[in-house]
UniProtKB/TrEMBL annotation:
Protein name: thymidine phosphorylase
Species: Leadbettera azotonutricia (strain ATCC BAA-888 / DSM 13862 / ZAS-9)
Domain Pyrimidine nucleoside phosphorylase C-terminal: 345-419
Entry keywords, A to Z: Glycosyltransferase, Transferase
Pfam family, one: PYNP_C
Annotated GO CC locations: cytosol
Top EC category: transferase
GO BP annotations listed: pyrimidine nucleobase metabolic process; pyrimidine nucleoside metabolic process
């Protein structure tokens, strides 16, 4: 077999066999097939897609590129949540301790910033000392003690996703239904989850721009998840505007703490609670989503999830006391405000434009080897529906470099749309699949 033939077959729209997929992905992980050939293949998949059979084979090959974590000996249920990627989406940081407070174990294996979207691992690592490269032993121990642990793909666990994820990030091959499906589900199966809530995002800041595409992705995830023996609930949620009021690594940790204290922004609280309610259902803690929502609201009000979050910060190498001291003042020194260009209502803040600008600020990467900046990002003082007067400060911006600030400011200003009348409310949760 030759990688170049596999690339040309995919380019011609042919269905690849499991053996061909295994040859390519296995060779990549072993260092025998170079990045440039895998990039070309990923681009061919991006344009030609994959059949359900190919997607399932890719997921399985990626899963078996490393070890599967054995959680036996720890009492379940093991339920996780994963998002298909968004801007300002920090719900994972709230959901893991919230589920743990209900007696659900969450073995959370996440990713880094991808394209214009943020990554849970980069956010967590903004907490000084926080380690996301846990060994399997540490992962197991922390799940047993805290009810959840948050880690990343390693050279032993789904190494194929670790490599492909980083490659897709910088080669324009992220927005592909089969590649997203295999990336998410290989991680979720490898981490030991039994059930999964999927937050499938659609809108400008998501990888799927239209609801219909989002629905196709949700269906691909649900079908492939079922084939792997996972119980899956998918919610199709809006990602046209950034979620919550902060975008940035440490900024989003802070906003997660607000959420754990019950005072997160309305849109963020709503999406978080609806996802949490489904985790409660899949974990057997609630009879339906309505019941689950009430149980989750009560748990949040008890303060237990916040306590568990801080306990986990300590377990994973951070210092909870230092985290609370940094809250509100751990920021890049290069900063400015963006003012409203007009008086009236903000009718939209385009999540895609904000995501792209954030990468330039230092929140994400332009090249695989780039380091993200923990203290860069954007805070919104007004969002869709806010009434503003020209000259009001609508965003505060922090950048890693002067150059990054210069490039991103016009993009951020351009992300804001104005209207003479209040915009209609958008539905945050479109449907359950
Ligand atoms: N999240 C993932 O883990 N992988 C993707 O490809 C997209 C979002």
């Amino acid at each position: 077999m030759r990688a170049v033939d596999i690339i040309m077959d995919k380019r011609a729209g042919k269905e690849l066999s499991r053996d061909e997929i295994k040859f390519l992905i296995g060779g990549y992980v072993a260092g025998e097939i170079p990045d440039y050939q895998v990039s070309a293949w990923a681009m061919a998949v991006f344009f030609k897609g994959m059949s359900a059979r190919e997607t399932a084979a890719l997921t399985e090959v990626m899963l078996n590129s490393g070890k599967v974590i054995d959680l036996s000996g720890i009492a379940g249920p093991f339920v996780d949540k994963h998002s298909t990627g968004g801007v300002g989406d920090k719900t994972s940081l709230v959901l893991a301790p919230l589920a743990a407070a209900l007696g659900i174990k969450d073995p959370m294996m996440s990713g880094r910033a991808l394209g214009h979207t943020g990554g849970t691992l980069d956010k967590l690592e903004a907490i000084p000392g926080f380690r996301t490269g846990l060994s399997v032993d540490e992962f197991r121990k922390i799940i047993a003690s805290d009810g959840f642990a948050m880690t990343g793909q390693t050279k032993d666990i789904v190494p194929a996703d670790r490599l492909l994820y980083a490659l897709r990030d910088v080669t324009g091959t992220v927005e592909s239904i089969p590649l997203i499906t295999a990336s998410i589900l290989s991680k979720k199966k490898a981490e030991g989850a039994e059930a999964l809530v999927l937050d499938v995002k659609y809108g400008s800041g998501a990888f799927m721009k239209e609801a219909a595409e989002g629905e196709k992705l949700a269906q691909s995830l649900a079908d492939t998840g079922a084939a792997l023996g996972l119980k899956v609930i998918a919610l199709l949620t809006d990602m046209d505007e950034p979620l919550g009021n902060k975008v940035g690594n440490f900024l989003e940790v802070e906003e997660s703490l607000d959420c754990l204290e019950g005072k997160g922004a309305d849109d963020l609280m709503e999406v978080t609670l609806e996802l949490a309610a489904r985790m409660a259902v899949l974990g057997g803690k609630a009879k339906d989503a309505k019941d689950g929502r009430q149980i989750c609201e009560k748990a949040l009000a008890s303060g237990k999830p916040r306590e568990l979050f801080l306990q986990n910060v300590k377990s994973q190498g951070g210092d909870p006391k230092q985290l609370l001291e940094l809250r509100g003042n751990y920021r890049s020194e290069i900063t400015t405000e963006i003012k409203a260009a007009k008086s009236g209502f903000i009718s939209r803040i385009d999540a895609w434009k904000v995501g792209h600008a954030s990468v330039q600020l230092g929140v994400g990467r332009n090249r695989t080897e780039d380091k993200v900046c923990p203290t860069a990002g954007v805070q919104f003082h007004a969002k869709r529906g806010s009434s503003v007067t020209a000259g009001d400060a609508i965003m505060t911006v922090w950048a890693a470099t002067e150059e990054g600030l210069k490039v991103s400011l016009p993009q951020l200003a351009d992300a804001v749309e104005y209207s003479g009348k209040a915009p209609e409310k958008r539905k945050l949760i479109l449907k359950e699949i």
